[in-house]
Design brief:
This protein is mainly β and 723 residues long. Helices cover 7% and strands 39% of the residues. It has an 8-stranded antiparallel β-sheet with strand order 5-4-7-8-1-2-3-6. A hairpin with a 6-residue loop joins β4 and β5. The chain binds CU-O-CU linkage (C2O) and copper (II) ion (CU). Copper (II) ion binds next to loops.
């Protein structure tokens, strides 16, 4: 049998723990803010003659360092929890002694046994198959290795709804697209969107189609209803080729000059006009000791207003870099002095907070490496590699233009097709055999969530956004959403080459299937000479960070507190092209928990932030986005429930970021986490709920928003005050 199903043995920690006060997807009376049944609960249907029997299969979340469990090859992993009722005694149906649960592909081959089941709750081995059928059969022995007995209950996984378009959809898809000149304005667009000046000679080019994908004709005719924009150098001003980033070590009190300006980049032999900090890609890597305070004299040499936000850093509010909330945007030619203090060790980053969909995408991002005075902050490694991950959207005629008045790609965000590690499309690293490398990873892309691994190299996760995990944990891959950071240790045991790959499954809407995608981000060459010192002993054990654990333990008393605030994540649309409207509203549409890849490029590209409003709604008041005005007192601990609505027009994952504070992700889809870490960004899969515990320690006016650049441009933000 093919390895369509991964069997992972899980211990009893999966039982509802006391901290998981949250609802689970198959609960009988789903609460308003429960996880989506549609994506995470399968209703079983009784076979004729067994009417009294009923059952549900929860596609339970497997606890782990990420909010979604994914195998290195990109398949989603679920913990099936089968709840059965009304099953008659097996012998009443024939010569049977027991019931057994199975899963099979929709064509019923191969079939995999999940295990024996009975009335009540049955927790079974993890599954990794997205389109599948569940069967409960009566069997003459629990040892049965294929279903030979009588089928009593059956059901289908949510992904089986993913089918090729039918005749009706083809008819819709063949209709000419209505022209898209809607003049609707976004209520809050002015808050963030200072339109760059017109780029007179810029024209819309078409977006490249992902390899092997097809679209309906009406989709191919779509164009965004805004003016195209790309940066252009003034004729009298040459722009210089960007240089790789430099390490800038700074001490307490030091000053750094930072300029944002135009640069020339050459990628795969083609030249582009892009943006850079101090002419570098990425921006300078700023290294500071923990508790230091530095001065950054910033000058804007762009053709549009900007600011700098120090992502994840719990600094003074007035230097947070949010236009109109903490400062006026810095106009072209203007400057601003930031004073940045670093209360927490770890890896952070900086980027503009104006039209991130353009400015960050064109290269304005850099890392901040904050060193702890603790020599044992991380366990031992032979070297450290600070990597910023990104993807750039390049067509036949160069960079695909951006929307001038409003962001394009407002539905799913702008997925790129050229993968960049530290701004380079061909990242290379050479190590010795047995070397332990500490990778400090930051996802700087507009929307892409990566599932990264090194073929054949063992990996453990050590830290995330704002500090270390309570204990190190083995992982198959790193799931990193926009703005998140993960620190991983990887040991390269075998001489030769190994690739850093992103392996995911995309949705092929045209053929109605999931398809595997592998992108290579870089190559590590492992030399035959052995590494020294040899850290293999250290690497083999999973260290517990007692300092981090003790810091988190102080908050444990709050884990079970009632939810203080909630947010529903959803979206509203207006004046979208007819074909987009209709295709999205079909009952059969399937949204994956995570959209790993931009597989509906035309519909996505042509929907602008004028037509799409992403919404954070406070269900207690009905208020939305910037109308929400939460107030807290400094020192308050707040439990916040996030519920990502599946029923919305285009459900999708959202990396939710909170400025100026830190939080713990207590549970996802009702399943508690047992290895915590301080975070500033959490990925919420479609239809999922999460409870997070926010320490409101830093006074000021702060933002909470989705870090998908186009969702932020489409209003998905709110502000709160800590007094
Ligand atoms: Cu990195 Cu408000 O964002
Ligand atoms: Cu979002």
């Amino acid at each position: 049998m093919k390895s369509a199903v991964a069997c992972v043995l899980l211990s009893a920690v999966l039982a509802t723990s006391p901290t998981a006060a949250q609802d689970r997807p198959c609960d009988d009376q789903p609460a308003a803010l429960a996880p989506s049944r549609d994506l995470y609960c399968i209703e079983l249907i009784a076979a004729p003659g067994i009417r009294a029997a009923s059952g549900r299969v929860e596609l339970g979340r497997i606890p782990g360092p990420f909010t979604i469990a994914v195998a290195a090859d990109g398949r989603l992993l679920h913990q099936p929890v089968i709840t059965l009722a009304g099953l008659p005694s097996p012998s009443s149906l024939g010569s049977f002694t027991t019931y057994v649960a199975w899963i099979a592909t929709p064509v019923m081959h191969p079939v995999t046994k999940l295990g024996e089941v009975r009335n009540g709750r049955n927790v079974l081995a993890a599954i990794a198959l997205e389109k599948f059928v569940v069967l409960i059969t009566a069997e003459d022995s629990p040892a049965a290795d294929e279903p030979r007995g009588k089928v009593v209950l059956r059901g289908q996984s949510p992904a089986t709804r993913l089918q090729p378009p039918d005749v009706l959809q083809f008819t819709l898809g063949a209709a000419p697209a209505r022209s898209d000149t809607a003049q609707a304005t976004n209520e809050h667009a002015a808050h963030m969107a200072q339109a760059p000046p017109p780029g007179s000679d810029v024209e819309w080019t078409t977006v490249p189609m992902p390899r092997g994908l097809q679209m309906l004709p009406a989709e191919m005719a779509l164009r965004p209803g805004v003016e195209p924009y790309l940066p252009r150098a003034p004729a009298d001003q040459p722009i210089h080729a960007a240089r790789p980033r430099e390490l800038v070590p700074l001490e307490d009190g030091d000053t750094l000059r930072l300029d944002a300006g135009l640069v020339r980049r050459t990628l795969k032999g083609r030249s582009y006009t892009m943006y850079g900090f101090n002419g570098q890609y990425p921006g300078p890597l700023i290294r500071v000791p923990q508790h230091a305070e530095i001065v950054v004299q910033f000058t804007n040499r762009l053709d549009q207003p900007t600011t700098i936000h120090w992502h994840g850093v719990r600094l003074d509010n007035r230097f947070d870099g949010v236009p109109d909330l903490t400062q006026d945007p810095v106009p072209p030619g203007g400057s601003f002095t930031y004073r940045v203090r670093f209360p927490d060790a770890g890896i952070y980053w900086y980027h503009p907070h104006v039209r991130e969909d353009i400015q960050q995408d064109l290269g304005l991002y850099g890392n901040l490496l904050v060193r702890s005075p603790r020599a044992d902050w991380y366990s031992a490694a032979n070297r450290e590699e600070v990597l910023m991950l990104d993807d750039l959207l390049v067509g036949d005629d160069g960079l695909v233009p951006f929307g001038r008045e409003a962001a394009t790609h407002a539905l799913m965000g702008r997925f790129g097709n050229v993968f960049l590690v530290n701004g380079e499309p061909d990242y290379r690293l050479s190590v010795r055999r047995g070397e332990v490398v500490r990778f400090l990873l930051t996802n700087a892309s507009n929307t892409r969530t990566f599932n990264l691994s090194f073929a054949g190299a063992r990996m453990k996760v050590v830290a995330s956004d704002v500090g270390n995990y309570e204990r190190e944990e083995w992982i198959e891959s790193v799931v990193i959403a926009p703005a998140e950071r993960y620190v991983v240790h990887v040991r390269f045991d075998e001489a030769g080459e190994t690739a850093l790959v992103n392996r995911v499954y995309g949705l092929d809407h045209f053929r109605g299937r999931l398809f595997a995608e592998t992108d290579t981000l870089g190559i590590v060459s492992v030399m035959p000479e052995a590494a020294s010192p040899d850290h293999s002993r250290d690497f083999a054990s999973l260290r517990r960070d007692s300092v981090a654990a003790a810091g988190i333990a102080r908050f444990r008393a709050h884990f079970d507190r009632p939810v203080d605030k909630s947010l529903v994540l959803t979206l509203r649309t207006r004046d979208l092209p007819f074909v987009t409207e209709r295709l999205m509203q079909l009952d059969s549409i399937y949204f994956a928990p995570v959209e790993w890849s931009g597989t509906m490029p035309m519909m996505n590209w042509a929907s602008t932030a004028r037509q799409v409003t992403w919404v954070l709604r406070d269900p207690a008041t009905g208020k939305e986005n910037m109308d929400i005005d939460w107030r807290f007192r400094a020192g308050e601990i707040v439990k916040l429930r996030l519920a990502n609505e599946r029923k919305s027009f285009h459900a999708m994952q959202h990396p939710i970021h909170i400025h100026g504070q830190r939080f713990l992700v207590l549970s996802v889809n009702g399943v508690a986490n047992d290895n915590l870490v301080w975070k500033d960004t959490v990925l919420l899969p479609a239809g999922a709920t999460a409870d997070i515990l926010v320490e409101m320690s830093n006074p000021g006016r702060w933002m909470l928003h989705c870090h998908i650049a186009e969702h932020l441009s489409a209003d998905m933000m709110l502000a709160f005050t800590v007094e």
